[in-house]
Amino acid sequence: MRIPLPVVGALVLGMALAMALVGCEQKAYLTEKRASPVSVAVAPSAPPPAATPAPAPRPVAPAPAPVYRPGWAPPAVLDTAVVLNGRPYWLRIEAETDSTQRLKTTYQPYPGHYEQARGYQGHFTFALHDAAGQQLFRRQLRKADFYKAAGQDIVTESEAYRPELLAYSPAFGALVFTVDFMVPDSDVGSQAVLLLDLTGRVLRISDGRAPGSGADCDPALTPNGRALLTGSELLRPGQPALRLHRADADLAGAFLLTDTTMLVVYAPGKSRVIHAPGEPETYGRTPTKQQQQAANAQVRHLGTGRVLSRFRYAGFYEELGFTIPRGYVAGVHYLLDEQRGLRLVPAAAPARTTEVRFAAMPRFVPPQRRHEVRLELQSAGSGFAFYIDTTSQPPRIRYQRLEE
Q1: Cβ neighbourhood burial of 334 (10 Å; 0-12, 13-18, 19+)
Q2: Alpha carbon of residue 398 to chain centroid
Q3: Which residue from 304, 321, 335, 148 is spatially nearest to 250, judged by alpha carbons?
Q4: Sign of dihedral through CA atoms 230, 231, 234, 239?
Q5: What pTM was computed for the model?
Q6: Long-range contacts of 306-313 (CB under 8 A, 24+ apart)
Q7: HEC profile for 15-57?
Q8: Does the pLDDT of residue 30 top 60, yes or no?
Q9: Separation between Cα atoms, residue 126 and residue 90, nearest integer Å
Q10: Cα distance between residue 147 and residue 163, in whole Å
């Protein structure tokens, strides 16, 4: 681009002045506009006008801390895909605590002593849709529906927890759920087992495992789906419920061994209020010597309920409910008795149980051998590690007492 002579003169004069200003530490500002000839400023530009200061932000009040209300919780929802009888469905489970409806009940923690429980109403909603989105059923239950199975006082105080889907049983034609209830700020609770058919009809509500008390008896469905163990009974389609409670003993625990068998363990003596002269009332068991020496564990047939074998087992312990320390390795159930050793119940022949005393087990000396499986079991006072050789029959077992 060709520059006119007057402009060239201006450039020369500007450069000379700029060089002089450098010695005085002055700065020249260059401004370029694409639509006009180049120009050079020979003096500092005027400072930009001072910006108007932004108004100071208004102080924001901190959000109030949420008010803790025992027994209340925000709604909980689960949407999940399920396959029932080979076809896809969509299941929605909701739980909501209604703080506008207060509940109150009177109960007896022990005979002659009355207390009150307070809480909020709870709603439990179940909805099933087919693959096209068509609703097949919508069933809503309230807390009162679970009073009998889970205890009116605990259910009243508990928040509404979202039910959990345990399984679907074609034999029962039912979806099986567990519903938990907990006394706020405690380790005391209860559980209900709910069966709904595919029209939403309630088939049964039974008790489940009670957190903080009760038997070691987790609800479980057999692999073939033809028997359901709840917290105190065995359910079978087309048959009456097999109640596991006894008048002369507490139910310590029960669990499924196979598709056709289960193990049931009783604590000798029935829990009751104990009156001792000059002592405060207590609650516990006072078994007789005969009860303490009798067989208290049973292997039972699921179909008939018949007792297949009995043996004495004292390895359970009671801390916030009963616990039967046990494990399963290579087709064998292992029950720990910290005073005696292990009781072995083979899945292939559950009625043929055997006991292996600690005296018959070598102490573990490292290393662990190639075919050994390590099984850790915890009793009330001690922990044990067992090293089981799964290639031998009967299994060869080494043991190690673990440090606290």
Answers
A1: buried
A2: 34
A3: 321
A4: negative
A5: 0.80
A6: 308/261, 308/350, 308/351, 309/350, 309/351, 309/352, 309/353, 311/343, 311/353, 311/355, 313/265, 313/337, 313/343
A7: HHHHHHHHHCCCCCCEECCCCCCCEECCCCCCCCCCCCCCCCC
A8: no
A9: 11
A10: 15
- Specify the amino acid at residue 209: R
Q: Which residues contact residue 179 at a Cβ distance below 8 angstroms, ignoring those fewer than 6 apart?
A: 124, 146, 150, 161, 163, 164, 191, 192, 193, 194, 208
Q: Which amino acid is at 393?
A: Q
- Closest residue by Cα to residue 316 from 219, 395, 242, 216: 216
- The DSSP secondary-structure symbol of 245 reads -
- State both tokens at 187: 């380790």
Compute the residue count for the chain. Answer: 404
Pairwise CA distance, residues 371 & 135, whole Å: 54
CA-CA-CA-CA dihedral for 244, 245, 251, 254, to nearest 10:
10
Q: What is the DSSP string of 348-389?
A: TSTT--EEEEGGGSPBP-SSPPTTEEEEEEE-SS-EEEEEEE
pLDDT in tens, 60-104: 667 665 566 777 788 999 999 999 999 999 999 999 999 999 999
Mean predicted lDDT score pLDDT of the chain = 86
State the SS3 of 175-191: EEEEEEEECCCCCCEEE
